[in-house]
From TrEMBL:
It comes from the Eukaryota. This is Uncharacterized protein.
Amino acid sequence: MAPATARPFPFLSFPREIRDKVYRELLCNFDPPPTKVLPSTMFTFEQAKHSIDTAVLRTSTQIHREAYDVMVKTNRFVLIESAGGLPIRSIMGGLRVPVITADRDCAQRFKGYVLAVSLSTKKPAWRDDEAIPTGPCGLMILGRDVRLFCEAFTDGDNHMPGFSANLSLTITVGPAVAHPVPRYKNTLTDFFGETTQKTLLHPFRSRLRGHKGICVTGCVSPDLAKAVQTEIAQDECADHQKVFDDFAAAKERGLAHFRAKDLTAALLAWQDTALDIERIHRGSSWAGLATRGGPDFLARMAELYFLLELNIAHVHLIGMERGIPNYPTFDFQAEQALEMARSSIKKSFWADDWKWQPSAVQKAKLCYRTALFLRLEGRMEHAGAAMAWVEQALRLVPGDAAILREKEKIAAWVELGG
């Protein structure tokens, strides 16, 4: 009896909607972005996790044409390119933006992008090094992660002073259309209609503000391109009173957590608020806010930020002394908060030739917490500095019970060490 001959699977006999479901399962199966950011991963790209099998693209001309079409239109791949001088790795690593490939040659060889974002800076502030690379790069992300990419770039001024003022950004819609179309691929021209254009550009116009050097080009209507450029160029904040009120309310929310003994929630609320203040302070909106608000606005913002940093240091000091459940406390975070508080009261920190002067009680808190930090850190070579800080605090508020107790503890520490 002759052996039965295996018949090819009749895949093309299935309805197109069934075939498209198969293509999506094989070519569009990416895991969601991560929800946690670890300090150890802050300067590395987050590799997009997936279960993609591209073998279907090598099956036949028709199947390749159909599958490639579904893959590109569903995943909506985006090319991110930097000419250099920008800390792209640290900016995107801060929010764990998933990257499909960070291989520049590989990313540039692919031709099925729905968007291309080209970044450059007029004044590179950092040199390229192993710790924070700023050299040229090219990488691929998914269209779904453009919002996260934009959110990461709102923190650019925290990574690099003058980032937003010096950034040049070109957004090209439909770069795939500019390439010749092989016979085994469909043209994507019809895909970039008005609805798709608006969808692709929505994350930029809703998330980015204060960037003046923006150009929107490619398969996009002139009116839409102009609208997006205008919206992105607008200052993020214009109402100085609202800016202050929002930050003051955020500080109070942290205080409510602290009073409820939820130290982790309080710390996160205060840290987020302080970072947002730093971002706006370093961004393009600040000059206008300072002009409109004048010295009164500057004084209120300076005091708010100073107290936020003291609060952040306070929680970390509690953590150093007795621990915070479920939250890793690091000595350097307390030290950093105290350093930021000290920096914020220096001349020209908030505006040229302008200085905010804290009250005696506020300055005493800074001195006291600095002394406490040095004692808890436990480095005997800093014992003399700890005593100097606590004595300065007592000169500012003589007879304060907490400060007197801390002086006694430092004296006992010095005696024990001696």
